[in-house]
Structure formats: C-alpha cells, structure tokens
Design brief:
The chain has 16 helices and 12 strands. By secondary structure, it is an alpha/beta fold. The structure holds pyridoxal-5'-phosphate. Catalyzes the formation of L-homocysteine from O-succinyl-L-homoserine (OSHS) and hydrogen sulfide.
Length: 400
C-alpha cells in the first residue's frame, strides 16, 4: 500500500498512460517544488511512543524504514501500477531481485514451475541451479508450442511463467492463451514484461497475476540505474512485500527517483525506439549479408498477427543472423564503430550483442538451439540516434 495520497489519484481517476507517467507524483512539500525531491533517508521518525507502536503494528500506513518503503519508491511503484493496471507493487534493486523474490515469496519447497524455454539467461540459471536447492522444480515448453503446456502441468505446479517478446529471439507468446490455461488449471500467471514495457503491452489485461520488470532497460532508457518491479494483485504482492521487507532487496531511493523521472518520457522514447527499430529491421531484411531478420512488427515475423494483437508497437530489439557463421559474426562485431558492444538493452545508445558467446553462453549448445539462439545471431537494441547513422554503421560492418 502506498503510504501517501499520491496526488494523481486525487486529480483524475482514469487517464492515458502518458499522463499517468507524468502526473503521478508525491504531494508537494511546504517548498512547493514542481519536480519531486529525493528522499535519501534510510529511516523515518515517529511522533511519540504510541505512533511508533501503531506504525510497527501496521495499524496505520506509515513509512518506517526504507527497506520496507520510501516515498520515492512508492511514487515509482504507484506510477507503474497505474500504467500496468495493477493493484499494488514492490520495487527491487534489480530485475533479477524482482524475479527471484516473486518466485521465492509465492512458492514452497516441492512446488513446480511451468515456463517458456526462452527466458532471460539469469532466470534460466535460477531455475536450473538455484531453485533445486529448495526442491523447486521446473518444466519448459517451447515458445512456439504452447499446446505442450497442459501436459507439463502437475498437481504441484503453481506458476506459469513467460516473457514476450522473448530475449534475444524476439519471439511472441500468446498472452491471452497463457491466461486461459492458467485460469483453467488454477495456476498463477507471471509475465516478465521487460521487453515491451507497460506502454506497449499490459499483460494483466490478458490474465497475468503478477507482472515483472527490469527497470534497467527501457524504463530507465539511458543505461544508468539497475532496478526491478513486481506489480499485480494485492494479495500476491502482499506476500512478495512481506518476503522482501525481511530479506532486503529494496530499490534505493536514488534509483527510484531517477527511474520515476525516466518514466515521464517513456512513451515518447519508446515510440521513437520502435520507429527506429522498424527502419533498421527493414534495412537488414534487404541486406544480402543477412540470413534472416526477426522483429515483431515486420510482416515476415512468424507471430506478426499476434504481436499486432497484444502490442502497441514492436519494441527496440531486432534479432538477425549474419551470413558466414561464427567467422561472419566475428567480422561484423570487430567492424562495428558507432554502435556499442555491450550487454545492456533499451538504452538511448544502440547496442549490439552476440548472445551465443555472452548472455546465453552458460546454456549448453542444445539449450541455446531450443531457445532459438543460433551461433551467428546478433541482437541489436536500437537506440535513439538518427536511424540513418545506425543503418550506416550496420551497413559498413556487414560489408567487411
Ligand atoms: C535484463 C533482464 C532481466 C534482469 O534484469 P536486471 O535489472 O539486469 O537484474 C530480467 N528479464 C529480462 C527479460 C531482462 O531483459
């Protein structure tokens, strides 16, 4: 529960996501500042003994300690909840802290997860190397075969988990179908919505119970801060909150402040990312050194109609395969000039990565193949530079 009457609620009830992103803000202090100040404080003071007792007993909504809640994180959470259509949320120090805490809070030893095989590399390692320590197991379904899901569900299955678009293959999963399967089998549907952001896709509309974000990517958009969020149904987030306030993965108020300001420009930034990405994808599709290109809003994408149905635009990530296998890939990366070779994505600066040798190198060759990652595959996170300059760099690198 936010500890404040975030002013947005008082002004307008129903509004567009652009407006929520800008106008959801903490009440002004006596200074009447226009931009929200930074509450860089670890703890908060009490009026008297009774105030302190009642606050700890949760008889009143009250900031106590920034591991539990802080005004800046409350503002960020409230904003993301409005944009996602969620009841409540919690903000974490990183996307992975959000992923881990969500599972850890909602699962017991012996429980089982059914997940799309195409999940973020660290999430995969969580499933395969960390959760088995506590007797939590998982089964994967291929992103393009959701009809296998029902055969994987066991009596102890609790969570159905997926990302869409997937990383790095930008494949699309049918969120409405996942919602139906989860409801039919009484499972919780948890969706990592990092690649789409709440501006492009709201999984709760399709039946998700909890939506997870890495705020590190498009939400921050300038590669400055790590952050994560879990938002969703009140009763589930309350369990996540109770787990997190004890175990301590809370987001720092500074990062929350940065991120809440970043969200003010999320819709305009993401619109431009998507326009640029579509131009880059079209260019790559016409290039003779490129084997194939995948971008959700290219008509050649295998799930183009689904992408159109559940997303407002295609996002910032384009995947493609350079001709010439590993050697062709190495030449391409060595020739790249303007674009950054970096592990991040969703930055104003365009970034190219080679998933097989970096983010997904911990997977076996077979696991990579099953996740749709080929040896010569390049993931490009298209930034906000002029598209002609991005394309010129790609063109010269491909011509090597
Ligand atoms: C980056 C990422 C994460 C992890 O987020 P961090 O902030 O790096 O911990 C989780 N899921 C997806 C899809 C991501 O891209």
């Amino acid at each position: 529960m936010p500890n404040f009457n975030i002013t947005n609620h008082i002004i307008v009830k129903k509004q567009h996501t652009e407006t929520s992103a800008i106008r959801t803000q903490l009440p002004r202090t006596d200074f009447q500042e226009h931009s929200v100040p930074l509450y860089l404080t670890s703890s908060f003071v009490f009026e008297d003994a009774e105030d302190m007792r009642a606050s700890f007993a949760e008889e009143k909504a009250r900031t106590i300690y920034s591991r539990y809640a802080n005004p800046n994180t409350d503002e960020l959470i409230e904003k993301v909840c409005l944009m996602e259509g969620a009841e409540r949320g919690f903000a974490f120090a990183s996307g992975m802290a959000a992923v881990f805490s969500t599972f850890a809070a909602l699962l017991d030893s012996g429980d089982h997860i059914v997940a799309s095989r195409s999940v973020f590399g660290s999430t995969h390692t969580l499933f395969t190397s960390i959760f088995p320590k506590w007797g939590i197991s998982h089964s994967y379904f291929p992103f393009d075969a959701p009809e296998q899901i029902e055969s994987l569900i066991r009596p102890e299955t609790r969570i159905l988990y997926a990302e869409s678009p997937t990383n790095p293959g930008v494949d699309i999963l049918d969120l409405e179908l996942l919602g139906e399967i989860a409801r039919k089998h009484n499972l919780l549907l948890v969706i990592d919505n990092c690649f789409a952001t709440p501006y492009l896709q709201q999984p709760i509309r399709f039946g998700a119970d909890v939506v997870i974000h890495s705020g590190t990517k498009l939400m921050d958009g300038q590669g400055r801060v790590l952050a994560g969020l879990a938002v969703g149904a009140e009763s589930l987030i309350d369990r996540i909150y109770r787990f997190a306030r004890i175990t301590g993965p809370a987001l720092s108020p500074f990062n929350a402040w940065v991120l809440s300001k970043s969200l003010e420009t999320l819709p305009v930034r993401v619109d431009r990312h998507c326009e640029n990405a579509l131009q880059v994808a079209r260019f790559l599709e016409s290039h003779k050194k490129v084997h194939w290109v995948k971008y959700p809003f290219l008509p050649s994408h295998p799930q183009y109609d689904l992408a159109k149905k559940q997303m407002k635009a295609g996002g910032c990530v384009v995947a493609f395969e350079v001709k010439g296998g590993v050697e062709g890939g190495r030449n391409f990366f060595d020739r790249i000039g303007l674009l950054s070779l970096s592990a991040n994505l969703g930055d104003s600066r365009s970034i190219v990565t080679h998933p097989a040798s970096t983010t997904h190198s911990k997977l076996s060759a077979k696991e990579r193949a099953q996740s749709g990652i080929t040896d010569g595959m390049v993931r490009i996170s298209v930034g906000l530079e002029h598209p002609e300059d991005i394309i010129a760099d790609l063109d010269q690198a491909l011509s090597g």
